[in-house]
């Protein structure tokens, strides 16, 4: 008997599409199941968490995770990426430079936010540059009529923000930390505040009014929530 999304602690959003909220930083990971394929959105905050995430995702998919999309370069979304050996890894253009030249900053941010030093060191040492860099939009054919659109919608939360649109009924948009529901959107030193509202406008154009929008942290939301957050960010950062 096949296991259900709920039995493994995942929330089913549409047919073959779901997400889980990881412990610690309440970070979202998404899963899109195709025919003999599986796309994971974000990889967790450590190699150990990545191992657990991969096991649960592959049990749901009935096979290997074949594709991995990283929404942005913060540790809680990317430090588990190295355990997905054999998967095709995607990120926004510029993510490769962050992984190559800013590892010390990634490690420091992780430790500052509570990741054990040994876990941070292990993950940073294992970071692998994404093979596929998205500058505009990139459509993945996952088989069985399933597609996923990767869209470089940033900058905003970081300089390298990638969203994932899964067509269907409803359409599902994985937003990364461009959208947060469980608290105020976090604008760290690598944020681009002046461009963030525009990035949310691109998200809304991508998904439309009836899509389910999946934040990087917190519960799934609707277009009205994203629009309110867009207006709040514009006011917060003085963007006209």
From TrEMBL:
Signal peptide: none annotated. It comes from the Bacteria. Residues 26-217 form the Metallo-beta-lactamase domain. CDD domains: metallo-hydrolase-like_MBL-fold (cd16282). Pfam families: Lactamase_B. This is MBL fold metallo-hydrolase. It comes from Streptomyces lavenduligriseus.
């Amino acid at each position: 008997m096949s296991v259900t999304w709920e039995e493994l602690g995942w929330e089913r959003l549409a047919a073959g599409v779901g997400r889980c909220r990881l412990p610690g930083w309440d970070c979202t990971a998404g899963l899109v199941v195709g025919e003999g394929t599986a796309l994971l959105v974000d990889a967790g905050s450590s190699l150990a968490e990545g191992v657990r995430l991969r096991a649960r995702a592959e049990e749901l998919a009935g096979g290997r995770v074949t594709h991995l999309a990283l929404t942005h370069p913060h540790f809680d979304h990317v430090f588990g990426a190295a355990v997905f050996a054999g998967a095709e890894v995607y990120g926004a253009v510029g993510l490769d430079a962050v992984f190559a030249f800013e590892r010390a900053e990634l490690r420091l941010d992780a430790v500052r936010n509570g990741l054990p030093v040994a876990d941070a060191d292990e993950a940073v040492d294992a970071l692998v540059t994404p093979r596929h860099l998205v500058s505009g939009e990139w459509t993945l054919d996952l088989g069985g009529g399933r597609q996923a659109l990767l869209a470089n919608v940033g900058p905003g939360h970081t300089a390298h923000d990638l969203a994932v649109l899964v067509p269907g009924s409803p359409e599902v948009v994985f937003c990364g930390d461009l959208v947060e529901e469980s608290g105020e959107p976090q604008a760290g030193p690598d944020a681009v505040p002046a461009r963030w509202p525009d990035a949310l406008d691109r998200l809304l154009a991508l998904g439309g009014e009836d899509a389910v929008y999946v934040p990087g942290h917190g519960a799934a939301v609707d277009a009205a929530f994203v629009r309110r957050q867009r207006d709040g960010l514009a006011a917060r950062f003085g963007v006209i």
